[in-house]
Structure formats: C-alpha cells, structure tokens
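Tokens for chain A. Residues wanted.
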C-alpha cells in the first residue's frame, strides 16, 4: 500500500547521505581506513626486522665475541621496541606514537653499529649465513621505507580533510581528530636505512691482528 510517510523517510535518508558525503564524511571514513592499513604494514615490516636481529647478532658473535658493548646495545634497543604495545590504536595517541618511533630509531642506530663491526672481520663478511641475513635486512629496510612513506601520505590526506572546511565540522561531529605522523626529528633518525652493502673487498687484516 502506498504511504507518503515511507517516501518521506527514504527522501530524508537520501538527503542525509548526500549531506554527509558533501561534508566529507565518506572521505574521512576512507582515509581513516587507509591509515589503518598503511600503519599495519609499517608494524609488519618493523616486526620482520626485529625477528632478523637475534640471528644476525648470533652470527656476528661467532666472529667478534668481544664486541659486547655493541651486542648489548642491540639487545636493549630490541627490548625497548618490544616493550611498547604496537597496536592499530597507537596512531591515536601522539605521545605513545612518538615513543614507539623513537625506539625504532634507536634500533636502527644499534643495527648500524652492529653492521659496522663486520667491516673489521673479512671472514664474517664472507660467511654465507651472514650474507643471507644481510640481504634479508636490506630488503626489509627498503620495505620499511616504502611502508612509512605510504603511511605519511595517508595521514596527510586524512589530516587535510579533518582540518578543512566544511569537512572539519563533520570531523568534530563524529569525533575524528588529526593523527600523528613522522616528524622531521625522527625522520632524520630512521629515514636512512643501515648500510648493509659489503660487496667491496675488505682490506687485508694486519699481521698479528684478529
């Protein structure tokens, strides 16, 4: 049976949908989902790197057992990263986000120091397992860079929507807030991957050394 009330209900729903779309609601939804997806990939690649570290340390120890300070630094850096619960919600907490990124920066520095040790040990550089781990680490660092850049782009699109009129009104209405990204300071700390290219021949060790 034909009812005018049903027509009014559908018309009202249509106007609401059009209004939300015009005020950026759909964009807020889609860009928020993009952030979740890109951040998940950042976490995935960071975890992949963390999983490589113990094996890398063990191989280096086999040739440079006395480099205890370096091994301790890597272990402590990995422990700091592991102590932070890296969840999708981390991007909603500026302080927690920056703490996690700072910890990852310390991990990058510690790995760089570990890899520098290999420069002094030609036999270590020639070890097949070490070279395999080196290649895996290089690939992971590249994936971290790509994932981080995608996250930065996703956050930029989302934050522009949150701050722009009239979508900023929709953001306030539905509780959407700006999300943190990588700052200039922590980008300097982690933007350059550790050097892992040992393809060049090493100088011969001096007599009586190593």
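Reply:
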């Amino acid at each position: 049976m034909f009812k005018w009330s049903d027509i009014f209900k559908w018309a009202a729903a249509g106007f609401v949908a059009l209004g939300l779309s015009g005020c950026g609601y759909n964009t807020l939804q889609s860009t928020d989902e993009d952030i979740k997806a890109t951040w998940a990939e950042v976490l995935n690649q960071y975890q992949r790197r963390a999983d490589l570290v113990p094996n890398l340390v063990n191989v280096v120890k086999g040739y440079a057992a006395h480099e205890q300070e370096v091994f301790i630094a890597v272990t402590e850096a990995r422990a700091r990263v592991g102590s932070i619960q890296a969840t999708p919600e981390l991007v909603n907490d500026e302080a927690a986000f920056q703490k996690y990124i700072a910890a990852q920066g310390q991990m990058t520095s510690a790995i760089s120091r570990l890899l520098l040790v290999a420069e002094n040990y030609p036999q270590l550089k020639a070890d097949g397992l070490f070279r395999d781990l080196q290649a895996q680490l290089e690939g992971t660092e590249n994936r971290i860079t790509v994932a981080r850049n995608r996250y930065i782009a996703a956050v930029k699109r989302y934050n522009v929507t949150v701050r722009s009129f009239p979508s900023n009104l929709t953001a306030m209405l539905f509780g959407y807030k700006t999300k943190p990204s990588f700052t200039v300071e922590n980008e300097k700390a982690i933007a350059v991957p550790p050097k892992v290219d040992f393809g060049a021949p090493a100088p011969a060790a001096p007599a009586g050394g190593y």
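The helical segments are 4-22, 25-61, 68-83, 94-118, 122-126, 128-163, 167-174, 184-190. The domain at 32-152+180-190 is CATH 1.20.1440.20 (de novo design (two linked rop proteins)).
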